[in-house]
Write a structure and sequence with these properties.
Elements lengths: L4 E5 L4 E5 L2 E9 L3 H6 L1 H13 L3 E6 L5 E8 L2 H9 L2 H4 L3 E8 L3 E2 L12 E2 L1
Parallel strand pairs: 7-8
Antiparallel strand pairs: 1-2, 3-5, 3-6, 4-5
Length: 122
């Protein structure tokens, strides 16, 4: 079963429902920092665009300045891949991506249930 499908047990049947996934994306710089900086403004514009669309929940640089991290909320992996493909860092081959999809099982009460409907607030 794909990771973006969650099984929920109903009163008498087992039904599959599609739930938007959360994704942890690590961007690792693979080019000199000078090349990365040359595309930083367009990358930031891309981050703002997709944050406003609700696809990026939080993003920022890694503490060792080797890249960045994004927590994303997309309907499926295809939507995430399409979004990442439009980033100037990807277009100019400045980063490699490590992507892990997950379904929230637990969330802080302040974290929207919209992003993790199956997660229990604690």
């Amino acid at each position: 079963m794909p990771s973006d499908v969650v099984r929920r047990i109903g009163a008498s049947t087992l039904a599959e429902i599609e739930v938007p996934m959360l994704y942890a994306v690590i961007l690792k710089y693979v080019r000199p920092i000078e090349e990365v900086r040359a595309h930083l403004d367009t990358h930031r514009d891309w981050l703002v665009e997709h944050t406003k669309k609700g696809r990026i929940l939080v993003a920022g640089p890694l503490d060792d300045n080797s890249g960045g991290a994004i927590i994303s909320h997309c309907k499926d992996r295809a939507e995430l891949d399409e979004m990442l493909a439009s980033d100037s860092f990807t277009v100019h081959r400045l980063v490699d991506h490590e992507i892990r999809g997950f379904t929230g099982a637990m969330r802080a009460e302040a974290f929207s249930s919209t992003w993790a409907p199956e997660a229990k607030p604690v």
